[in-house]
Specification:
transcription regulation; transcription; DNA-binding; 13 helices; disordered N terminus; Lambda_DNA-bd_dom_sf; alpha/beta; 15% strand; LacI family transcriptional regulator; six-stranded parallel β-sheet; 349 residues
Length: 349
Amino acid sequence: MHDTDKAAGGVPPQQARPAVMIDVAKRAGVSHQTVSRVLNDSPRVRPETRERVLRAVEELGYRPNAMARGLVSRRSKVLGVVTFDTVLHGPASMLLGIERAARAAHYGVSIATLQRADRAEVLEAVGTLADQGVDGIIIIAPLMSAAAALHSLPATLPAVAVEAGQDAGLPSASVDQIEGARLAVRHLLELGHETVWHVSGPNGWLETRDRLDSWRRTLEEAGAPVPPVIAGDWSARSGYEAGPVLAAQPDVTAVFAGNDQMALGLLRAFAERGIRVPEDISVVGFDDIPEAAYLTPPLTTVRQDFDEVGRRSMRLLLRLIEAEDSAPPPTQVIPTLAVRDSTAAPRQR
């Protein structure tokens, strides 16, 4: 250790533990309260003192934790997230995108996972997170039952909804599900298919409603026949069970599955019956799960940018926390279509 390091009371570069606030205070020759004020951009610090503290932060590689940064601002630097059923790709990816965005903004995350996602359980989870002193809450609410609770939240708690529809009653961030379904159906119609069949998600989901409505509207606008809907439940099993129903229809040449898992089940059911994809039937999914490009054949699907949804929801919430905007407008992320080998122009079966 150099003598200058000893005199300054510093921690050597080869320290066995990460630097903490008191190490920065010793190196800069100030109190830990002064360090906290500098980290929170308080104007009550002389420029020369601020420069000394920031130099110590850089020399020690100090990373401020949430509690330290909250000493002056009186904020916890922790956000609450209400979510549910993280086994499903969509909600799990939304949660991951929000966590990444929070970390980039130097916030911790406290998560409340729901079993039923009904109104009472959502309000209970929000109350629990509020009691923990979180600075604000993000609610992932793709179910209609959960979205209904958003109108009953306390007005004093900054809150943002994710995937809760356009009438959430809160600032919201979402993927444009209507545009995503339109991209899928238009792609198949433009390939020359006379119509597109649909395997939908389960009732009670806003995503099911929006994708189904957009599928129907796009067909009607194109003057194409609207076939009966085949209901699924997001699982590969339900897609597999829809396969025989579709295979029994001699005029089916194109199918839009409500998510990639159901599309995967369709591919398996069609293969077992000797139906070739895309030669006999084209299939489009929704979500672009990591495995989509490696299915047989690689799946054409609608890609959702969950990281961008996370970033936008964080920006909305920070505007509320910082009192920059009491009612920021909703924001939507436009999905894209990943065209792969599961779609082609129709051929006679």
